[in-house]
Write a structure and sequence with these properties.
It is a single chain. About 40% of the residues lie in helices and about 15% in strands. It is α/β, with parallel strands linked by helices.
């Protein structure tokens, strides 16, 4: 079947995934206001295209931390990808490698991080702060030894948000899917009515990160450290002062604080506040097309993270489906960039934007 946009792959994934696994992937926290707002906020933004520009030799390539990427994007960290396809993270990482974009390995991956990194390409590693600091730093060292190029430190999860779909489903991991990077015991597999076993497991394992945690991670790795989950301008400024290599503006895909502002609505303010800083400024949350990537660039982002759509492709058709998602984003972004009169991502970052208040 020909998929012409990511919505086609979303429908295909929903058709094949069991209901509770679809809810685990698609759902947000609380009433899912932030989840819904992420898309609504992106849809309100319009770019002001330029005309009669020279487009010969145009390119969508960028550099992240001194190395080429074919698109200004990386695959976002998503936990337990073997829920969506038997090959899980290995298939998604191969698709990212072939697409020429970084793939972010999750702390809660269902395949050991070393095996995922061995696929090649541009692996990054996403870190959750664990109750045992030594275990957290051990994960950082393992990622560094495995060849990962950056640490994406998620800092908006002192504990997991109340994800009501999972709670209503009494969601638990099947025995065939585990947290492969550490011994998780049985907590994530114990099904209890009205509770999420995954949330129970993370409550036992995770600890709230602090600015001291950020400094500890930076002091224990030579890799650039990106902070994922920043929305406040003041926090962005403090992150720059702390010497991080990147900021990911994100409300965690609407899965943490329900009512948190969409990242795209803070992106422009944060970009202005950190103007002149040489780190990476990425947007996460709600990216569903190449046009969305263009909007993020126009508002000052050096790139985006896309997560759920890659999982739609993985669920629908394994590695080939994930590759289709990334291919579609590449085609759409090149098309949008050219139609906006841009021959490079740098040119796209100079576009003006307008916000529509019409529904």
């Amino acid at each position: 079947m020909t998929h012409l946009c990511l919505d086609d792959l979303e429908r295909a994934a929903r058709d094949v995934l069991p209901g509770e696994i679809w809810d685990f992937l698609a759902g947000g926290s609380g009433a899912e206001a932030s989840l819904t707002a992420n898309r609504a906020a992106l849809e309100r933004i319009f770019v002001v295209p330029r005309i009669l520009r020279e487009l010969t030799g145009s390119t969508t390539e960028v550099e992240f931390f001194g190395r080429r990427a074919a698109l200004p994007m990386a695959v976002a960290p998503i936990a337990y990808q073997r829920l969506f396809h038997p090959e899980g993270e290995l298939a998604a990482a191969r698709a990212a490698r072939d697409a020429g974009v970084p793939y972010t390995i999750c702390t809660l991956s269902s395949v050991p991080l070393e095996e995922i990194a061995a696929v090649g390409g541009r692996p990054w590693f996403q870190l959750y702060w664990l109750r045992d600091e030594k275990r957290s730093l051990e994960l950082v060292r393992r990622a560094e030894d495995a060849g990962c190029e950056a640490i994406v430190f998620t800092v908006d999860v002192p504990w997991m948000g109340r994800r009501l779909r999972d709670m209503r489903n009494g969601f638990a991991l099947p025995n065939s899917v585990t947290a492969a990077n550490f011994d998780a015991g049985v907590a994530a597999h114990r099904r209890t009515r009205g509770q999420s076993a995954v949330a129970d497991h993370t409550a036992r394992e995770f600890a709230p990160a602090t600015w001291e945690s950020v400094e500890t991670v930076r002091a224990n790795t030579d890799l650039p450290v990106l902070l994922k989950g920043i929305l406040a301008v003041e926090d962005a400024r403090r992150a720059v002062d702390a010497g991080v290599g990147g900021i990911v503006v994100s409300n965690h895909g609407g899965r943490q604080l329900d009512g948190a502002v969409p990242g795209i609505e803070m992106l422009g303010e944060i970009a202005a506040a950190v103007s002149g800083w040489d780190g990476e400024l990425l947007l996460d949350g709600g990216i569903r097309s190449g046009g969305d990537i263009l909007k993020a660039a126009a508002l000052g982002a050096s790139g985006v993270l896309a997560g759920r759509p890659v999982m739609w492709g993985l669920a629908a058709a394994g590695e080939e489906g994930a590759r289709q998602v990334l291919d579609l984003l590449a085609v759409e972004f090149r098309n949008a960039m050219g139609l906006a009169g841009c021959d490079s991502v740098s040119a796209a970052r100079r576009l003006d934007t307008k916000v529509s208040h019409h529904r």
